[in-house]
Amino acid sequence: MPHHERGNYNRHAHVHHRVGEWMPKNHADLESWLAKKIKAAEHNQRTQESYKHPVIGEFRDLIENDPEICMAFHQMFEEVPSKPPYNNDPSGKPQVRDYHLMLSLFDIILEEAPSFEENNVILPINAILDWPMGTPAGYRAFVNPRVNEMFHKMFNVWAKFLSSPESRNVLTNEPGGWFSPAASEAIPNFEETFECDPSAPYHGFKCWDDFFTRRFRPGARPIELPDDDSVINSACESKVYKTAHGVKKHDAFWLKSEPYSLAYMLNNDPLHEQFIGGSIWQAFLSALKYHRWASPVNGKIVKTVNVPGTFYAESPVMGFTSESEPSASAMNHSQSFITSVAARALIFIEADNPKIGLMCFVGVGMGEVSTCEVTVKPGDRVKKGDQLGMFHFGGSTHCLIFRPETNVQFSGDFPPQTDVKLNQAIATVPK
């Protein structure tokens, strides 16, 4: 894979690929955050002989006992380019230099809730793996099923902490807190918009996960045209990524053009055949907003499927290849790619309008815990705006998939990068 570096790189420049507010657009902020964590990790390495969390020891054993995995975890750090901006520490090396430091950092992260860092939101594991994800060896490591099983096991430990009262220490108005003046500016009108109790400690939230999966207050997102079955509504509070028509059963989803591959997206479910040649709407969720899913149509739940997948695999053509973006591309530019490989949930809905018929909602985890929780079951009746499920902490994107005979017409009001509110009308079918 060719590596393109630019000698005039401005380390304070905004990085366009961090479009989901999941990582700082100013890379210098990420370096500063990571430097503090590295200092703590190196101190821990000096003062203790073992990891605090046994699952990190298991991760080390997996790497060191499997020659293929061991080679990939060595090479992913060696393959990071040695020129700016990738050599971000004073010695001229990447900040995270090997898997030993990586694991020590993981050990710290598992007992921390994400804070609102210097006007930024940071996905901690993504920050640690930011450069290695863009390497060929990183790709090999992060598509390995055993590595992903270990990430899943590690995230179960982290999720337990994020669901505990101890995780509320970031739900304060202190610097770094989610109710600080800086956070309140980033999430305006929080108390009026979301269900909470501003007079209670931690605004009444029981844990970090409770805060992350917070609900809108009644009426905050009214359902547009709730009884018009020719109108399809937005399933998430999100930003449009792309739309596509004539989607193929199989396509080269790993290419830079990012075509969709229906059979893989839908995990080769027998129902996928009905969607060949159909249409897709894809939009991603900001770290700062709402993470529950709502039904886009009136209808009945036909089937739900949770698909295990990768956590940190990004498209192999996206790493270190952009002349205009001198940074590893993270996952925002791999959003179509990860619909075929990442952990995700499928919800098939039979719309009441026969001209829509069967459609599918796909929730895709993009990193970190990446839990896609489905809260409906086959046979349930749903109306527009009824909850389908939610993302727990992690980057996320979603798709609505329609059959070719649906003849769906997406609204021109929502070009790529446009914000779309939950329950807004986004598409129609001919009456």
From TrEMBL:
Keywords: Decarboxylase, Lyase. InterPro entries: PS_Dcarbxylase, PsiD-like. GO terms for cellular component: mitochondrion. The keyword S-adenosyl-L-methionine does not apply. GO terms for biological process: phosphatidylethanolamine biosynthetic process. GO terms for molecular function: phosphatidylserine decarboxylase activity. The keyword Transferase does not apply. Residues 53-186 form the L-tryptophan decarboxylase PsiD-like domain. This is L-tryptophan decarboxylase PsiD-like domain-containing protein. The lineage of its organism: Eukaryota, Fungi, Dikarya, Basidiomycota, Agaricomycotina.
